[in-house]
Specification:
Blueprint lengths: L5 H4 L9 H14 L7 H5 L5 H12 L10 H14 L3 H6 L6 H18 L15 H19 L21 E9 L4 E10 L6 E7 L14 E7 L16 E3 L17 E9 L1 H7 L16 E9 L2 E8 L4 E10 L2 E8 L5 E6 L2 E6 L11 E3 L11 E8 L1
Antiparallel strand pairs: 1-2, 2-14, 3-4, 3-5, 5-6, 6-7, 7-8, 8-9, 9-10, 10-13, 11-12
The chain binds a DNA duplex (21 and 21 nucleotides) through helix 4 and helix 7.
Length: 395
DNA sequence: AATGTGTGCAACCGCCTGGAG
DNA sequence: ACTCCAGGCGGTTGCACACAT
């Protein structure tokens, strides 16, 4: 026998609310506010438990509730949010003014789920449901061949395969960004970072020390670029470091790509500025990444992160150093790889050698070619809206 | 008209979390 | 450190209604 509910224990009323009960609850809340829900029934003269009152108020009586059908915009929004958040109805409802989690949950279960299934889309993954027809097999074979062709471009690759735990979402609500970490021993990490973009309270600030950046991403042996994330809803995700070089972005300009599917025609664009130490001082406050505030006094990089067809490139240009290099990230055989394609005047490349990722200086005038590197994911927690992907290498 | 079936929605149930004592 | 309790959440249930047979 299961636990008795509070209503059973206290012999309270259950079931549908009568208009009289609604009136009592509404009058009480509008006059006195909510306060403590457990005391509301008594004060309002209701034979209900506090939980029941709370639910009735939130889902039905609250004056700011939007009634009626969901608009097509709301429907699209719910689909988008569900793709990112899953069945986190309360979080979804928080993005839809006037709608309750219960309402959205019901709408999803009764309409949207069926609609997606009709379209051949898995409502859980939001990806096409694969059916084992000949046609589908052909398509998969093509994808496989395409993947292998990509892999062949990485002729110097000797890395060992790992399970692809790396996942980037191709929805606009996610952003992806990356950077370089390096300690005093010049041990470096490149990270990719993912976060929900639409959350107005969440943003990142990346910082690093060192004033001698030239070529590549950073070539300063003492550079120390670390991440700070500010997210009041997820305080555990906050971390800050001693660093100086700012690396921040405007949330409205970033989104993500899905590497879990080679055929995904996902696309992302991301613009951000790298600034030198002097500029960073101006931007070290917790401002919301207004890029125009980031003046540059020496080193200034405009980066474009572009994702298309499950690959993205990362352009770095530096007017003063005549640097223009591009990183490409692709999923190949279930792994995410990066390569740097440097134009003349570029001075640094990442490459993989003997199972380790190496950074080398390169002054070749010609196009360098590709230097495959393996990105591994250190951690991913899909239950959290943000996580990091890091690969280590030594230069 | 009676009965069966499907659907949408309001409400409940049980679990989890965080704060107070 | 522990217990208790309120509030929040997602999953589930059950009722009312519409429609089909």
């Amino acid at each position: 026998m299961g636990r008795h509910s509070c209503c059973v224990k206290q012999k309270l009323r259950k079931g549908l609310w009568s208009p009289e009960e609604d009136e009592k609850l509404y009058n009480h809340i509008t006059r006195h506010g909510v306060g403590c829900w457990s005391s509301v029934p008594k004060l309002a003269g209701l034979q209900r438990c506090g939980k029941s009152c709370r639910l009735r108020w939130i889902n039905y009586l609250r004056p700011d509730l939007k009634r009626g059908m969901f608009s097509s915009q709301e429907e699209d929004h719910i689909l988008s949010l569900h793709e990112v958040l899953g069945n986190r109805w309360a979080q979804i409802a928080a993005q839809l003014p006037g709608r309750t989690d219960n309402e959205i949950k019901n709408f999803w279960n009764s309409c949207l789920k069926k609609k997606l299934l009709k379209q051949g889309i898995d409502p859980t993954t939001h990806k096409p449901i694969m059916i084992g027809s000949d046609h589908d097999v052909d398509d998969q074979e093509k994808k496989k061949n395409s993947t292998e062709n990509k892999a062949n471009n990485f002729q110097q690759s000797t890395f060992t395969a790992q399970e692809p735990t790396f996942l980037l979402n191709d929805h606009d609500n996610y952003s992806i960004n990356g950077g370089l970490l390096a300690d005093a021993n010049n041990s470096k990490e490149i990270f990719l970072n993912k976060q929900l973009v639409y959350d107005p309270f969440s943003y990142f600030e990346f910082q690093a020390s060192g004033s001698d950046q030239s070529g590549g991403y950073t070539s300063n042996n003492n550079s120390n670029l670390i991440i700070s994330q500010y997210h009041p809803h997820h305080p555990s995700l906050q971390f800050e470091t001693n660093s100086n070089l700012a690396f921040s972005f405007d949330q409205g300009n970033v989104s993500g790509a899905d590497f879990s599917d080679n055929s995904a025609a996902s696309r992302v664009s991301c613009n951000f500025l790298l600034n030198d130490q002097a500029a960073t001082k101006e931007s070290s406050s917790n401002s919301t990444s207004n890029m125009s505030n980031y003046s540059s006094t020496g080193f200034n990089q405009m980066n474009n992160l572009v994702v298309e067809n499950a690959a993205f490139s990362w352009d770095i240009s530096d007017d003063q150093n005549k640097l223009n290099s591009m990183f490409q990230f692709q999923q190949v055989n279930g792994m995410i790889k990066s390569e740097e394609m440097s134009t003349p005047m570029s001075s640094s490349c990442w490459h993989e050698e003997g199972g380790q990722l190496l950074h080398s200086q390169n002054n070749s005038v010609d196009f360098i070619g590709s230097y495959p590197t393996l990105i591994t994911s250190l951690s991913e927690d899909l239950t959290e809206p943000s996580f990091d992907h890091v690969f280590h290498h030594i230069s």
